[in-house]
Write a structure and sequence with these properties.
Blueprint (H helix, E strand, L loop, with lengths): L1 H45 L5 H10 L2 H15 L14 H4 L4 H4 L9 H12 L4 E7 L4 H14 L4 E7 L4 H9 L3 H4 L2 E6 L8 H5 L12 H4 L5 E5 L3 E3 L3 H5 L11 E5 L8 H5 L10 E9 H6 L13 H12 L7 H11 L4 E3 L18 H6 L3 E3 L11 H12 L6 H13 L11 H29 L1
Length: 463
């Protein structure tokens, strides 16, 4: 009996000790949990700091609702345009939006975020004009109008056309452009200028290579109020917005004042590398059918040359340069440009071949890697391929854009007819790579459609 009482007493003592231990242990465990909960509060306050330590603390200790909120904000930011990619990684703006949880969780949160939208909306709403120049003589009226039509169809910002033409063509341009529907004529303004050469013999310049082609050399001296300009030949078609090639101006460094694409991608079959009797730019020369220019820099620059040891201005250089090399040039003004940039290579920005895609890029086999990856951005139908059957793929694109009714559905009246016409071109090397011609124009059509839908949805939501 005494032993039993001792066992019971010992058990009670152990039970009391266990209870005491559990009671003390629960108090010891509680502070870390409370500290963790309290630790999330200062972390949220520190997230407003721009330093990397503050961002790390915010990411590690932020509470679950705040993390969800940031995830929504990042998705909204990802939906903005490509300009958002240039925003600094240490941008504190995302952290400062933590107090706007209600707006982020709304059904149309992406539509109602002006701070997120401003990066993508700025290029579309900017008052700055994009300037496009072309020179048309002889029978180039229709080609020029189709080129201008392709520019207006896809571009976002407003355009100013600078059309240099013979006097007989001026009323024809005015008549045709005024026939376009108001929904498109409001997107551009235009001027028609007479053919004029400020230095040298005008008749000599006019007959250089093709009628009036040398006019492009005098654009910096004629358009003195224009800062930057895109010049294109009449046989060019835009398969994406001009806004995109205009963006190359921002890629110029401090010495670059013009941009062109290489004449060829393969030196062994390039014209300049095989036949040129004069200096030319780089390994294969450059093609001047698509030329982006900072006219202000051109007017202010002093150009190195082979005639005198000091620099010359653009206007001072043109005629002496022509006089020196006129018996050695084949392609007229393009050869003169190659000579200029041979002596001034630091002044030229070289953009990829898909921005000046010509039959040479596919008629001997595909050799423009940029077009294979991204599609053709600007089509250049030189060699007269729009008007004969030698390269039916180029001709098909020209005819479809020419015949497209302005206000019709782009897919039904342009893209599908284009696919159908391409079926008849597979017997040619260019026709065997239809995806190269269709990829960019399909992407552009989708963007045009989506921009209209987003604008309409946004307007309805605000109402």
């Amino acid at each position: 009996m005494k032993l039993y009482c001792k066992v019971v007493a010992l058990a009670l003592c152990l039970a009391l000790l266990l209870l005491l231990y559990l009671f003390v242990g629960s108090d010891a465990d509680e502070p870390p949990l409370k500290a963790a909960a309290r630790g999330s509060r200062p972390a949220r306050a520190s997230s407003s700091s721009s330093g990397p330590g503050g961002d790390f603390a915010a990411g590690r200790f932020r509470s679950v609702p705040a993390a969800e909120e940031r995830e929504e904000e990042e998705e909204a930011a990802a939906a903005a345009a490509a300009a958002q990619a240039q925003v600094s990684k240490r941008e504190p703006r995302l952290h400062r939006k933590t107090g706007r949880r209600g707006a982020a969780r709304g059904k149309f949160a992406n539509v109602r975020r002006p701070k997120d939208q401003k990066h993508s909306a700025a290029p579309l709403s900017s008052p700055q004009w994009m300037h496009l120049a072309v020179v048309a003589c002889g029978d180039r009226l229709e080609e020029t109008l189709v080129m201008l039509k392709s520019a207006v169809l896809f571009s976002y910002r407003k355009l100013k056309f600078h059309i240099f033409a013979e006097d007989s063509l001026k009323p024809e341009f005015e008549k045709k452009l005024q026939e376009w529907p108001p929904s498109y004529t409001k997107k551009f303004e235009y001027n028609v200028y007479p053919i004029a050469f400020s230095v040298g013999n005008a008749q000599e310049w006019k007959k250089l290579f093709k009628p009036c082609a040398a006019q492009r050399l005098f654009l910096p001296t004629i358009l003195k109020d224009v800062d930057s300009l895109l010049y294109v030949d009449t046989d060019v078609l835009f398969l994406r917005p001009i806004d995109d090639i205009w963006g190359f101006l921002r890629a110029f460094n401090s010495t670059q004042l013009a941009a062109m694409a290489p004449e060829h991608e393969i030196p062994k079959i390039g014209w300049y590398s095989r036949f040129a009797r004069h200096p030319y730019y780089g390994v294969t020369g450059v093609n001047s059918g698509v030329m982006l220019m900072n006219l202000t820099r051109i007017r202010n620059a002093q150009f190195k040359n082979s005639m005198i040891p000091t620099g010359l201005t653009w206007e001072e250089m043109l005629y002496p340069l022509y006089q020196k090399y006129k018996n050695y040039i084949t392609w007229g003004d393009q050869d003169l440009l190659n000579i200029i940039f041979y002596f001034n290579p630091e002044c030229l920005y070289l953009f990829p071949c898909q921005w000046n895609y010509r039959p040479d890029h596919c008629m001997y086999g595909s050799n423009c890697k940029g077009a294979e990856e991204e599609g053709v951005s600007i089509l250049h139908g030189n060699r007269g391929v729009y008007h004969d059957d030698k390269q039916p793929t180029f001709k098909a694109l020209y005819e479809v854009i020419r015949d497209f009714p302005f206000e019709d559905n782009l897919f039904q009246s342009m893209y599908y007819p284009l696919q159908s016409k391409f079926l008849d071109t597979v017997h040619t090397l260019c026709g065997r790579i239809p995806q190269v011609f269709l990829k960019q124009i399909e992407r552009t059509m989708k963007k045009v459609y989506e921009s209209r839908v987003i604008v309409n949805v946004g307007a309805n939501f605000r109402l």
